[in-house]
């Protein structure tokens, strides 16, 4: 495992929100209340943030985690010519769900 910290500075809250939305970081929970942050409440949040930061940029620190694993076999299909097996994150999530439910 390897971990790196990436610090990103935003000139405005709008740019940060645009980046978050661009990565798909949204609340997609079905049935979630949509009115928790109305315009007035959002404006109060922005004003408080700006008062706290002043002219400083909005700084966000992101932790990047890198990992790798080895296996003694059991891989479905042929091994690629470069010897590197690539596993999609979706496949890992599917495997983890099977393990939690007791399925094999």
Describe this structure in words.
This protein is an alpha+beta fold and 104 residues long. It has a domain at 2-25 and 39-77. It contains 3 helices and 2 strands; from the N terminus they run E-H-H-E-H. It has helices at 13-22, 39-53, 89-101, and strands at residues 2-10, 58-66. The chain has a two-stranded antiparallel sheet with strand order 1-2. The longest helix has 15 residues, at 39-53. The chain is elongated and about 60 Å long. The protein starts with a strand and ends with a helix. The mean pLDDT is 79.
List the helices and strands and how they pair.
Blueprint: E1 2-10, H1 13-22, H2 39-53, E2 58-66, H3 89-101
Antiparallel strand pairs: 1-2
Defining key terms:
two-stranded antiparallel ribbon, alpha+beta, 3 helices
Taken as a percent bin, the fraction of beta residues is: 15-25%
Query: What's the pLDDT, averaged over the residues?
Result: 79
Name the shape in a single word. elongated
Computed over alpha carbons, the radius of gyration is: 21 Å
Secondary structural class: alpha+beta
Largest sheet: 2 strands, antiparallel
The end-to-end distance, rounded to whole angstroms, is 27 Å
- Number of DSSP-assigned strands: 2
Strand order of the largest sheet: 1-2
Order of helices and strands: EHHEH
Helix run count:
3
Low-confidence stretches: none
How much helix, percentage-wise, in residues? 25-40%
